[in-house]
Amino acid sequence: MTTTTAAIAYVRVSTEQQATEGVSMAAQLERIRAYCLANGLELVAIHEDAGLSGKRADNRPGLQAALADVCNRGGVLVVYSLSRLARSVADSLAIIDRLQRAGADLASLTERIDTTTAAGKMLLTMLAAFAQFERDLTAERTTAALAHKKALNQRVGTVPFGWDLSADGTTLLENTAEQQTIATIRALRASGMTLQAIADHLNTSSIPTKKGTAWAPKTIRDIANRAA
């Protein structure tokens, strides 16, 4: 008795514009169906994410369902392209690693990747090597940039709330408005007000943080506990 390998399809579009540029979910699924038919795969499930960016994998319910499905069933996860799976090679490889640990495979039609074949596995190895090279190169650039700043006696690291960086990048200068906010935080904390209440007070009063984001209890705690 011949056993047919199960295929799980995953399709995604992030914008309405993509639907008119040849990569609509219907177009992706048509290619996937043709691939399964040509390769003797049984398409047993279809998962989709409509109007969701590929920047993060954890906020796409369709992708998470597809991964859980193929990891539980075994078989092959079939996608139109790696760009539908993830935005970066590193993220794609993390997903592929999860599939491999579960004994499942991946087929990406645009890149012609099929991890059920030796050639497909070799291509993945090459992609992994390039991804590692990219990470190493980024680390080297970061190290070089920090070394350059140190050589110029420039400050390395973030500028704390209450201070600004001098024009030459070497000295911290007091920010009067932020120093007043620090004094307010410490006074309110000393009066027994909770961290959340202080954060709510600052947010309601439209007092900005260093980055312009909302105040949070952790930020209040760090400032209140910082040595004067």
Characterization of the model:
There is one protein chain. The protein is built from 8 helices and 7 strands. It has helices at residues 25-38, 61-73, 82-85, 89-101, 118-151, 176-190, 195-204, 217-225; strands spanning 5-13, 41-50, 76-79, 105-108, 113-114, 163-165, 172-174. A 5-stranded mixed β-sheet has the order 2-1-3-4-5, sandwiched between helices. Strands 6-7 form a two-stranded antiparallel ribbon. Strand 6 and strand 7 (172-174) form a beta hairpin.
Topology record:
Elements: E1 5-13, H1 25-38, E2 41-50, H2 61-73, E3 76-79, H3 82-85, H4 89-101, E4 105-108, E5 113-114, H5 118-151, E6 163-165, E7 172-174, H6 176-190, H7 195-204, H8 217-225
Parallel strand pairs: 1-2, 1-3, 3-4
Antiparallel strand pairs: 4-5, 6-7
Helix pairs in contact: 7-8
Task: Give the helix level as a range of percent.
Answer: 40-55%
Number of helices: 8
Distance between the termini: 78 Å
Mean pLDDT: 84
Structural class estimated from helices and strands: alpha/beta
Strand order of the largest sheet: 2-1-3-4-5
Low-pLDDT sequence parts: none
Radius of gyration: 26 Å
Please trace the helix and strand order, writing H or E for each element.
Answer: EHEHEHHEEHEEHHH
Largest sheet: 5 strands, mixed
Global morphology: elongated
* Amount of beta strand: 15-25%
